[in-house]
Specification:
about 260 residues, 1 helix, eight-stranded antiparallel beta sheet, mainly beta, Jelly Rolls, about 5% helix
């Protein structure tokens, strides 16, 4: 099924969310993201980090803005481009974040709204090469239309989780991956779809500190391995937290940002 993009919507820079200027807990204990991007705040090719922490993004290629719900605006990609940035070239699609995110994580959450049809491996957001202990990613997986969060598991460390629910069906889905220490050792990876826990997995790795010169965040852009593809689909409400969001918090985020009849 072909994906139809909406016409571009003119928007202006709205500035950072004033409730997100500092890390920690927001009102009623709601964690604040350490990096977040709302495309309703886009100003040309510039997308400010609405957390206020300086992880501003630049848009490459020719994605278009489309309405998602009320005042929310998504960014729609046509799947064109390649990963030439990693060979010393210029990024030609997706979004790049100028400020490195280098810190280690034993607790982590990555959140996004996603709409896409089934296709090969396509990134929503990741840091560096997600095969590595210092990398991580929220991805759309290649074979069964599901979502994938954590590290790419090529060595049997099981430090990732794949959704049970098919999310690549042309409909909007709220997807959240979380990481935290497991009670019996190792690290618990969970993935939530549309406000509900969908799958979990205990693995060996957390997320190590990025080596010098790395910590590079990319959105909708293929990684350095060349094994995945530019995103063909739409995204909105991408955020990274240095805590594992609770089931109640994730449910609240879903209810607060979903489209209602």
């Amino acid at each position: 099924m072909a994906f139809c993009f909406a016409a571009a919507i003119p928007v202006t820079h709205a500035g950072p969310d004033q409730q997100s200027q500092n890390n920690g807990q927001g009102p009623q204990g709601n964690p604040r993201p350490i990096a977040a991007w709302s495309f309703a705040q886009a100003d040309g090719t510039f997308v400010p980090d609405s957390s206020g922490n300086g992880y501003d993004a630049i848009v490459y290629g020719q994605p278009v803005l489309e309405p998602r719900r009320r005042k929310d605006v998504a960014l729609a990609f046509d799947g064109s481009g390649d990963n030439s940035f990693w060979q010393g070239g210029t990024q030609n699609c997706g979004l790049g974040v100028g400020k490195p995110l280098t810190q280690p994580f034993t607790r982590l959450s990555v959140e996004a709204w996603v709409r896409k049809d089934p296709a090969g491996w396509m990134p929503i957001i990741y840091r560096d090469l997600w095969d590595n202990p210092s990398g991580f990613g929220l991805y759309m997986e290649w074979s069964s239309g599901k979502a994938f969060f954590g590290h790419y598991d090529s060595t049997g460390h099981h430090s990732a989780v794949q959704s049970e629910t098919v999310v690549q069906d042309g409909q909007w889905h709220h997807v959240v991956g979380t990481l935290e220490p497991a009670i019996a050792g190792g690290y618990l990876y969970r993935i939530y779809v549309d406000g509900r826990l969908d799958a979990d997995q205990v693995g060996l790795w957390a997320v190590e500190e990025s080596p010098a010169g790395s910590g590079i965040l990319k959105i909708a852009y293929p990684n350095s391995s060349g094994a995945d593809h530019p995103l063909k689909g739409s995204v909105d409400g991408i955020a990274i937290y240095d805590v594992a969001l609770t089931p109640a918090q994730i449910k609240a985020h879903f209810e607060a940002t979903r489209e209602r009849p």
